[in-house]
Every structure is written in C-alpha cells, then in structure tokens.
Design brief:
Layout: H1 2-25, E1 30-34, H2 45-54, E2 60-63, E3 69-74
Antiparallel strand pairs: 1-3, 2-3
Family: Belongs to the DEFL family.
Signal peptide: 1-28
InterPro entries: Defensin_plant, Knottins, Scorpion_toxin-like_sf
C-alpha cells in the first residue's frame, strides 16, 4: 500500500512539473521601443512606466542608460 501512494505522489509531481514547463514555453515575447510621446530626459523609471501604461497603453516602461523612456510591448 505504501509503495502505491509513493508512486502516486511521484506521478503527481511529474504531472505538475510538466504542466509548469508547458506554461513557461507559451509566454509571449516582449519587445522594447522608444516611447513615442514621452518628453524630456528620463530619470525615474516610475514616471516612464506610468506614461507607457497610461498614455501609450503598453505593458510597462523603464528608463535606460541613454536617459530615454523605453516602453515594453508584446511582439
């Protein structure tokens, strides 16, 4: 009886592992583009993120090393 429950538990973990791998493979790829309407130098990622989400209706945004706002979207 104990071997059956151990085998069942191992099978359950195997199914959960395979299901998790399938989810990771189906995630959408993202691309970064320069924000179209952001004005001025980008110093705070929070303001860039708000701009990309609210004004350009994209996923997110961040300031990069070139002090410009870059928005993230699905490719």
């Amino acid at each position: 009886m104990e071997k059956k429950s151990l085998a069942g538990l191992c099978f359950l973990f195997l199914v959960l592992f395979v299901a998790q791998e399938c989810v990771l493979q189906t995630e959408a790829k993202t691309c970064e583009n320069l924000a179209d309407t952001y004005r001025g130098p980008c110093f705070t990622t929070g303001s860039c993120d708000d701009h990309c989400k609210n004004k350009e209706h994209l996923l997110s945004g961040r300031c990069r090393d070139d002090f410009r706002c870059w928005c993230t979207r699905n490719c």
